[in-house]
Design a protein that fits this description.
By secondary structure, the chain is α/β, with parallel strands linked by helices. It is built from 17 helices and 16 strands. α8 links the parallel β1 and β2. The longest helix has 20 residues. The termini are far apart.
């Protein structure tokens, strides 16, 4: 069959939707929203792949997954081999298949997407990883002889876990130091259960442990130990993947009222500390009836959808730009809309109103209009004079971004930082101004995606390996 005929035939197969919970039911529980593909749906979706001779989709993947190869194995029904092929380049495929913005990365390069919808790479990645785990056939790759080199990884988020997985498979001894009592970083404290079940993260981390990665918990590097002390303990290189976990507020009047949370605290209480399972887990969290979430990214969507599930009657996303400029994934926005989250676009809070007991009861807002583009390329929101109005709220979650936490960076002499406190690191290698110290993920770039953090971990793992092997 000619290539043109093949392409036309595959274009006629529609992109396969993923079965998911009914919106009315799921808005009241914390169970995962999509059910995932079954084998039949996965093979049908995989059969849409054109198997391009020069696959552009790989260029769109920050960790370089061999996308056509693993998809072809799904088409052939060899799901276990597909999972193994994924793991050659991605240590966390079940995670990436759920939370990565494939629509703006690998899928945006798909040839099918020029005329039709692209191949659902993320859904197929999730299927293969889930299938392997459900069958209990997760096998460990052959490991090379030990090199005798030791690497300390600070932070067990996506960047640190990816780097740890890569380096352990190159024969190095890897120890991860995690400040919290659970591994996963933003995967466990930030992303809700209904989007990324914690059992999935646990399984991915367990795979790394079986490879030989050691994880030490409740280690706040910068307090318990410094980076210099890690070197003194015999580590030959240190990778800083601590994320950007410093809450950011708007600094408007009334922000110190009770009932106003940072998204960091709100989601950490619900996710890592399991407040959503109260009273089984005795972690208190405020249950608002009229909730406002400030911001338009994935964290804002997570916060709003969590508030609904905790019992809110009304949840508003308050965003200063229009829907077109929303930075959140389109799938997350769609799910939020389905579940009943109300969107107030071109709106910005200017002050909070409280009662005599110090609790927030209202939020004064102003309408915005879009002006000329700013440095981000998006049109700058400009206040409309005289358009102020008040929104009744009893809980506010501020999800406008995060900053660099100075706990560790403030204890590393001669470590070059940006004016915002992020670590200056080579984007290709993660190399910092300190000999033997590398960094990647949000502590370098500011808040970004899981897969970009993983890409940074992948780049640094290559650079650290070369550095270690060159030391003799």
């Amino acid at each position: 069959m000619a290539e043109k005929e093949k392409k036309e035939k595959k274009e006629k197969i529609p992109r396969q939707p993923m079965p998911e919970q009914d919106p009315k039911k799921r808005s009241k529980n914390f169970d995962e929203v999509p059910y995932g593909y079954n084998p039949e749906l996965a093979q049908k979706e995989a059969s849409r792949c054109l198997q391009c001779k020069k696959p552009k989709c790989i260029e769109g993947c920050p960790v370089g997954v061999k996308i056509p190869e693993f998809i072809n194995l799904i088409t052939e029904g060899d799901f276990i081999a597909a999972a193994k092929k994924l793991k050659e380049d991605n240590s966390l495929p079940a995670v990436c298949g759920r939370v990565c913005p494939q629509e703006s990365q690998c899928e945006s390069f798909c040839v099918l997407g020029k005329k039709d919808e692209p191949v659902a790479v993320g859904r197929l990645e999730r299927f293969a990883a889930d299938y392997e785990r459900s069958k209990g056939t997760v096998e460990l790759p052959h490991l090379p002889p030990p090199t005798g080199k030791k690497v300390a990884v600070v932070g067990s988020g996506p960047a640190g876990l990816t780097l740890a997985g890569d380096l352990i498979k190159l024969g190095h001894q890897v120890t991860v130091f995690e400040a919290l009592h659970k591994p996963g970083g933003v995967l466990v404290y930030g992303i809700p259960e209904f989007r990324l079940p914690k059992a999935i993260v646990d399984a991915e981390v367990d795979y790394l442990k079986r490879l030989g990665v050691e994880i030490k918990y409740d280690y706040v590097i910068g307090k318990i130990l410094t980076v210099d002390e890690l070197f003194e303990m015999g580590y030959h290189a240190v990778f800083l993947g601590v994320g950007a976990g410093l809450p950011v507020f708007m600094n408007i009047p009334g922000e110190n009222l009770c009932g106003i949370y940072s998204a960091n605290e709100y989601l950490t209480r619900s996710n890592l500390m399991k407040a959503y399972l109260f009273p089984q887990y005795d972690t208190p969290i405020a249950i608002g009836k009229n909730v406002a979430v400030i911001g338009g990214g994935n964290v804002a969507m997570d916060s709003a959808r969590t508030a609904l599930r905790l019992g809110a009657d009304n949840v508003h996303i308050v965003y200063r730009r229009s829907k077109t400029e929303l930075p959140a994934r389109s799938e997350e926005v769609h799910h939020a809309e389905q579940e009943g989250v109300q969107f107030r676009f071109l709106t910005a809070p200017v002050r909070y109103i409280g009662n005599a007991d110090g609790w927030v009861t209202g939020m004064e807002c102003i309408e915005m209009e879009l002006g000329e583009p700013d440095s981000s390329g998006r049109r700058r929101p400009v206040p409309k004079e005289g358009s102020n109005f008040t929104l009744d709220v009893d809980l506010v979650v501020v999800a406008i971004g995060t900053g660099a936490n100075p706990i560790i960076t403030g204890t590393v002499p001669n470590l070059e930082l940006t004016k915002w406190g992020y670590i200056v690191a080579d984007p290709e290698t993660g190399k910092t101004s300190r000999e033997g110290v590398y960094a990647g993920g949000d502590i370098v770039t500011g808040s970004a995606t899981v897969i970009l953090a993983m890409g940074a971990g992948r780049n640094s793992s290559k650079a650290i390996h070369e550095y270690l092997m060159g030391k003799g």
